[in-house]
Amino acid sequence: MRIITLLSLKLLVCISFANAQQTGEGILTDIDHNIYHTVHLGKYIWIAENLKTTRYNNGTQIQFVEGNSKWPTITTPAFCWYDDDQNNSYTYGALYNWYAVNSGNLCPTGWRVPSDDEWKYLEGYTDSLYKINDPVWNKSGIRGYNAGKRLKAKSGWRLNYRGTDEFGFSALPGGERLNSFNNTKTSSGFWWTSSEADSDNAWYRCMIYSLNEISRDIHPKRMGFSVRCIKNEKELF
Is residue 39 within 8 Å of residue 48, measured between CB atoms? Predict the structure, then answer.
């Protein structure tokens, strides 16, 4: 009986491990000991929360900038908390300029900031109408059908608007920063890609509380946006 019990236990462990490998769901810890959930979406594994680290993965401190007068002039890596209030980081993460993204060390070791094309893949994977590699994802501005709604968290958004969070991505509206914070927390989420558009601008994504779609566009690298990370394997399958 004891042998059967041990065999059954081993079988359950193997099944649980196999399921974990298949879904890619788990946890990730950054250098500041912040813990993030992760989620497997198609051929990539993403962190399912906005990044909030204050240090690069090599231990170097990222420049912290407070005050609306200084932030717009920064052309070196920097981060801030929305409204200069660290309490906002616990739910919405930090805001980083693109110079911090471009350091190559912002995400935990073994992870990276996704490119414009990798965001396109995510959009096509999660949209119920326009699929992966559909030309619609190459357009700028608001496009697609409902990938935004399906990726948004079920809470944390303005008023009674919320997402369905069908994939566990839990997108949250961390807002933005340039000259000011523009009262965008809870109404809009902005995420950098690692893709440069030109010497002054880079590609980003935006989800707005009242829209089901996702917007793709470029903005000055000095903007403060949220960041998600994906695992370094180019393609898991």
Answer: yes
